[in-house]
Amino acid sequence: MRSRNVPVLVVALALALAGCTSNPVQPSSSSSAEFQRPAADRPVTSEAQKRAKAHVDLGTAYYTSGRFGTALDEADTALADDDSYAPAHHLKALVLMALDDVANARVNFERAAQLAPGDPDINNSYGWFLCVQKQYDAGLQRLDMAARNPYYTATTRPLTNSGLCLAMQGKDAEAETYFRRAVQADPDNMQALLNLAAIAYRRKNYEAAHAYLNTAHQRGQASPESLWLGVRVEHMRGDRDAEASYVSQLKSRFPTSPQYQKLIEGNYE
C-alpha cells in the first residue's frame, strides 16, 4: 500500500501519468547487450545517423527548456532521417511523457529499448516511466540495469528513481537505501536529500529530517514542497524561529501553492 505521506513530487507524477498498462519490453539476458555506452558517447556510423543525431541534440535542448512542441518536431525529423536511431525514439518518448501521451510514449520507449537494450539513459527513463505506470518490478529492473552499467557516470539518476519508485509503494526502508546511495554518488543530489528528509519526518526522527533539509537547501533552490516540509519539521522540533522563517519564505515565494493553502488551513498532515 502506498503511504499517503509519500513526497508530493512522486504522487503528482503518478497521478498525471497514470494510464493503461501492457507488458513492457523485457531487458535482454545477453551480457553483450546488457551494458552499452550512453548514446552520446557512441560514434555515429552513417550520414543519416549524423543528421538524426544533430536533430536529437537540438530537440534535447528544446525539451530541457520546456519547449515540448519544438522538441517533438526535432524528434520526428530525426526519425525521418533514421528510424533505427534509438536516441530519437528516446527523445520522442520523453516529450510525449511530458505531454501526458502515455500510450505513444510507451511505444517509443519500447522501440528505443529494442534498438539499444543496454543504453543506460534509455533504461533509466524507461524504468521511471514504468514505475509511474505502477509496473514497479519491471521499472526497478530497468533502473537497476542503468545503475549497474559500468559506462554510466550518472548513476545517481537511476538510484534516485529507484528510491522514488519504492517510496511510491510505501517501502521507505528500501527507498532510503537507494537515496543514500544516490547521495553517495552525488552529494549535491537535492532530490535524494529531500526524500531522505521526508522519510525521517514520517519516522518522527525530526532531528535527522532537519539535518537533511538544511543540507538540501544548501545544495539548491527551495521548492514549495521542501519549504512546507521544513515548516512541519521545525513545528515538531519546537523551533519557532526556524518554523517562522519557512512560513515567511513559503508565503512570499509561493503564495498560490497548495502547500501555502494547507498552511492557511492549519493542515499539517
TrEMBL record:
Source organism of the structure: Nitrogeniibacter mangrovi
Repeat as UniProt keyword: yes
TPR repeat residues: 156-189
Listed InterPro entries: Pilus_4_PilW, TPR-like_helical_dom_sf, TPR_rpt, Ycf3/AcsC/BcsC/TPR_MFPF
Annotated protein name in UniProt: Type IV pilus biogenesis/stability protein PilW
Residues spanning the signal sequence: 1-27
Highest taxon in the source lineage: Bacteria
Gene symbol of the encoding locus: pilW
Gene3D superfamilies assigned to the protein according to its UniProt record, in alphabetical order: Tetratricopeptide repeat domain
